[in-house]
């Protein structure tokens, strides 16, 4: 009997409904682009995968209207401290504390509108699926596996099948994006290859229920506990009521430990005997890999499908969501007709340097694990042990603070030498892994500011380009740019912001902000036609630029 065949058409087909695929689908759906999302798994289970939703991703959730929904859905209380504790055991001596990891403190910060959120990835996905369901032009099908895809000059035809019923699908799309993870089927169809270092170390992760820790838990609440002892150097993290993640590194050649051995290790990590319930197990390996190409005509890769790195620094899921946001507006531009193919080429040109920088940070963080901090006798009540603890605290703060103070990477990574960013001849800010200095230099993330009415400047940006008019002298030039954009059907929203503090922040009378909140151009005196052609990938010509005095 021949399986049923279902034919469908869409603008964008996305393979993989993790956070990256969902982010891309939401970005497209909010702009009324037809998007079909297929996922071979049911996306169920207790394994949290990512646990850090960083400040940049929270900015996106704010744009999507679900930042508050995610905070409400988070299993941990709103005021839960986002500290990282280093201790001998979970219930033992504290050795060092890194406060406000990943900028998660719930306070108003001038540099960004949303604090980071410690929340399991499965909760993030649930909230994102809820938002996707509200978008009429987007649909999600689970239990559907991509088998193959072929391209023509004008479209892609994907062949997929239902893993349960065997129903076959033939889906025609203008573009196909692989957000299907480390074992990407789309990457295989493209013929792209991952290059770099495979399986640097293997790790064993457990999700455990430990009821006793609800009433007899650690002295200090934290989002992560690095446990430094000779029996079970490990990391434990709270996920929700009584549920903890427990991770250890496996020695070379070691097999998965049995339950008796794991129980012994958990007891050593906690610091006493406790009742535990195994919820989920997972063995994973750390890689440093990047695809040799992210695009093949109408096929694209995003997230883990094109880059893999150790999960130290909380970059993984967030980096992939950044891919989705960058790619989304460029696909929209081409589908709606105001962008050109050069805009799609800029996706890899812009994202690859960001990937390489971020991967370098993750690998740097990965060089110091719990086992690398081990010193004998840390629990003892002796002057020698006290001295050893003091020395270790200094070492911990010197070697591990970088992993949890990441704003210079998260907000400070910029698009260097992008063909759709108009350089203004000024010096870009110096990159630093933790220190972030807001800058409106073209290619940087638009500087944030809180306005007098309590809103964020970002709240006033449109879904297309935003033209910030920061000085009364630039009003006429802004009107000219508006008219050219309207004639070319380029979505552009003008925002007049005649506040001295904002003009000083952007150091220009005009600033053109891309749909992804990066600065495309700032200054004055540009030819509107050349300017908009350049930022939309329609022309390689660059407008004449003039920087107004700040």
Walk me through this protein's architecture:
With 550 residues, the chain is an alpha+beta fold. Among the domains are: 5-74 and 115-195 and 288-364, FAD/NAD(P)-binding domain (3-Layer(bba) Sandwich), CATH 3.50.50.60; 415-535, Glutaredoxin (3-Layer(aba) Sandwich), CATH 3.40.30.120. It is 29% helix and 23% strand. The chain has 13 helices and 24 strands. The chain has helices at residues 19-29, 55-64, 67-73, 121-133, 185-190, 259-270, 316-336, 341-366, 383-404, 407-410, 475-487, 500-506, 528-535, and strands at 5-15, 35-39, 52-53, 84-87, 94-98, 117-118, 138-142, 144-151, 156-162, 168-178, 194-197, 202-209, 224-227, 234-240, 243-249, 277-285, 288-291, 295-296, 299-301, 307-308, 465-469, 492-496, 510-513, 519-523. The strands form five sheets. Strands 1, 2, 7, 8, 9, 10, 18 and 19 form an eight-stranded mixed sheet that branches. A seven-stranded mixed sheet has the order 5-4-13-14-15-12-16. Strands 22-21-23-24 form a four-stranded mixed sheet, with helices on one face. A hairpin with a 2-residue loop joins β14 (234-240) and β15. α1 packs parallel to α7 (316-336). The longest helix has 26 residues, at 341-366. The chain is globular. Mean pLDDT is 93; it is low at 542-550.
Distance between the termini: 74 Å
CATH class annotation of the domain at 5-74 and 115-195 and 288-364: Alpha Beta
- Gyration radius, rounded: 25 Å
Low confidence ranges: 542-550
The total of beta strands comes to 24
CATH fold category name of the domain at 5-74 and 115-195 and 288-364: FAD/NAD(P)-binding domain
Strand content: 15-25%
Rough shape? globular
Nearest-integer average pLDDT: 93
What portion of residues is helical? 25-40%
Which class of secondary structure composition applies to the elements?
alpha+beta
CATH architecture classification name of the domain at 5-74 and 115-195 and 288-364: 3-Layer(bba) Sandwich
Number of helices: 13
Largest sheet: 8 strands, mixed
Which homologous superfamily in CATH is the superfamily of the domain at 5-74 and 115-195 and 288-364? FAD/NAD(P)-binding domain
